[in-house]
Amino acid sequence: MRVFHTIAEAAPTGRSAVACGFFDGLHIGHAAVIGRAVERAGEAGLTPGVFTFTIHSGHPARKCDNCEIITETKKFHMLEKWGVRLLLSPDFTDFSAMPPEEFVDEVLVRRLGAAVVCCGDDFRFGRDAAGDVPMLKTLCAARGVEVDVVPAVLWGGERVSSTRIRRLLGGGEVDTAGELLGRAFGYDFTVVHGKRLGRTIDSPTINQRFPADFVRLRHGVYAAAARVDGVLRPAVTNIGLRPTVENASAVNSETYIIGFSGDLYGRAVEVRLLRFLRGERKFPSVEELKRQIQADAAASLPVAERYIAEKNGK
């Protein structure tokens, strides 16, 4: 997959079918739009492409700040896996001042070589989000570009959106969020050193720090699965401030990978949250914390094993 991080460096090698959107969660609604572009590209011998963006230096007024559902690295990996071969992902400030006409001419036509543009029915573009889908159709038609509008995907009678997923994650409803994402919610941050307390209570854990701009999760304990060396393993994860042993200010993910021992420091380990088990709380002693970790592991094990069996069966 060819990846461009600025508009100025993007250069098409041919005509493309381009999916346009922020695609900040890569949920099932986003998958429908991107899948349509890949499908249209295959039908017409075009390059399947995506126009998206980052919000490191600014963000649209209607988009959530400081709440990424998926890291950029994971996002790019998934797009390539879905069949995307051309990706333009500039920072929002690289194009936010463009009038709608300039966005179509400079970004879609010149830089991406779009013959087909696929988008959701709520797509906005151009300075101050002045452009909508009817305007996009008009501008593209005048330039010989087809617009394919993909209807909203509904789940439970309600539109699937990243905002909805963030709300679910903030409430601990990771299983429902996973349905809307089309996959278990997870992250793969680097394992860092903690207080090494887990080793002293026979429950060695891995610690991962959440960036300030990552989605807010309900603090507490989750049934989980962790991928180590390509193998999914049952786990139990605590999200929070570790009040019993540290009472930290930064949100921490602490995962006990059941039955695993090994040095994972400095490695990016994928952790998938499967079900919320209980809220975070402070224990009066380390001994009581030890007993609770083992009880949490026992509660997580059947959930994780069922999930792993389902994934291995596909």
Describe the structure in brief.
Helix content is 31%, strand content 24%. The chain has 314 residues and is an alpha/beta fold.
What can you tell me about this protein's structure?
There is one protein chain. Helix 5 runs antiparallel to helix 6. The chain is 31% helix and 24% strand. The strands form three sheets. The chain has a seven-stranded antiparallel β-sheet. It folds into two domains: 158 residues, Rossmann fold (3-Layer(aba) Sandwich), CATH 3.40.50; 128 residues, Beta Barrel (Elongation Factor Tu (Ef-tu), domain 3), CATH 2.40.30. It is an alpha/beta fold and 314 residues long.
User: What structural category arises from helix and sheet content?
Assistant: alpha/beta
Uncertain spans, ≥5 residues at pLDDT below 50? none
Q: How are strands sequenced across the largest beta sheet? A: 9-15-12-13-14-11-10
Based on CA atoms alone, the radius of gyration comes out at: 22 Å
CATH architecture of the largest domain: 3-Layer(aba) Sandwich
CATH top level class name of the largest domain: Alpha Beta
What share of residues are in beta strands? Answer: 15-25%
Total helices: the number is 8
Q: What's the end-to-end separation, in Å?
A: 25 Å
Give a short account of the largest sheet: 7 strands, antiparallel
Number of strands: 15
Helix share bin: 25-40%
Task: Say which CATH homologous superfamily of the largest domain is assigned.
Answer: HUPs
Count of domains: 2
Q: For the residues shown, what is the average pLDDT? A: 91
Shape: elongated
Order of helices and strands: EEHEHEHEHEEEHHEEHEEEEEH
Assign the CATH topology of the largest domain: Rossmann fold
